[in-house]
Amino acid sequence: MNIILRKKRLVISIKSAHLILGFFVILWLNAGNFTYIVDSIPSFMKLFVAIIWFGLSCYRRKTYLYYFLKTSLLMIGFVAIIFSSMLLERRAYYNLYFQAFLYIIIIFALFSYYFYFGEKKELNLICKVYMADMIIVLFHTFFELINNPILVRAISTSAESQELLLNAEIPNGIGGYSFCYALVFIMILFTLSDGYLKNHKIFKGILCISVLIFLFQAQITLAFIIYVIILLMSVFLSKIHTRIQLVKKILLTLLVVSILIQYQNILQWLIGIADESMAQRLEELLVFFQTSGRVTGSDSQSRLELYQISLQAFLQNPIVGNWGNRPFGCHSSFLDMLAAYGCFGVIGIVGFIRPLFLAKKRLIGKNKKALIYTLIIFSMLACINVVHVSQITLAVVLIIPITLKYMACGDENKE
């Protein structure tokens, strides 16, 4: 009897330690409020914690390693390609992104365990802790942006530019551009999925409006536009069960048509009330629409030129690209992979989105559709922006799939 009790205690202890280590790794990669703690911890210790978590995952679930390799083998292969280019003294891509891809493999390891083997209570705890972290960062960042307008420009620039603007690093617990995009993807759970916060409509509405205001204040223009599109999709794609819902959909359709007709006047009004940085971007957007994209000297035109650099580099040598050397534009994850490694970059592209394809097979109904929308939006964003950063990847590859799985578990229990 004592031996049985000891074994049970050992199992519980290992399970608890494994979950705590999982929380540590997730919050570290999310780079939110946990930065107050982890910034003082050396990188090798954080990686060591991730390795211990991985070892416990293999110990707890005998088939875990199989699912990890099934999910991550292509991405591991792409990381090996990046490493090989460094050995050949072609270091540009390696210096910029090697660490980011190592973090992505860690996120794939988290996905491989919690999506396939995570218990309902574990998934619930992870979702709640992550959501709390995101909400706290959202409101903290919002009030900091109001108090310090220069921070608006700093959060969307490089670390070097941040120091020039602020004469210091961005304070801990403040969300940057990657936080804004991660937030947009997480809101898919509240708008396009089936039943998340279904019984808390007031809180859900307040949160949706708060995110809209925050993204406008943060002046990450593309994130704001994507979020507005997601909100519109949530209404147009919803099923009509009552006359009130039908009236709402008709009114919204009329509103959208009116906005499309009057978009120039609306953009000019927004330019008038926006801060300097956002007003400049909105003005560039207005000119871009008015000239059908034929505009020079704007941020949009600069992006198009950077995309062209990556595309030309790929077309000049489509087999191996520059094998990790420049030129590539650094403004598109997928185009940069192709520019840097040619056809071998396809390994990275397919490997990057593979977890979402695997997760899609295990979901049904509206939850499956929500993941498909996530996959489409994420893939499109990866073509026009850099998305292989830990915050965005964590939200898309880990949090959204395991939350949808948790919701599916709840639906099964109801049945």
Automatic annotation (TrEMBL):
Alphabetically ordered keywords of this record: Membrane, Transmembrane, Transmembrane helix
Superkingdom to which the source organism belongs: Bacteria
Transmembrane segments: 12-29, 41-59, 66-88, 94-117, 170-190, 224-240, 252-271, 338-359, 371-404
Keyword Cell membrane appears in the UniProt entry: no
Protein name: Lipid A core-O-antigen ligase and related enzymes
Coiled-coil ranges from the UniProt annotation: none
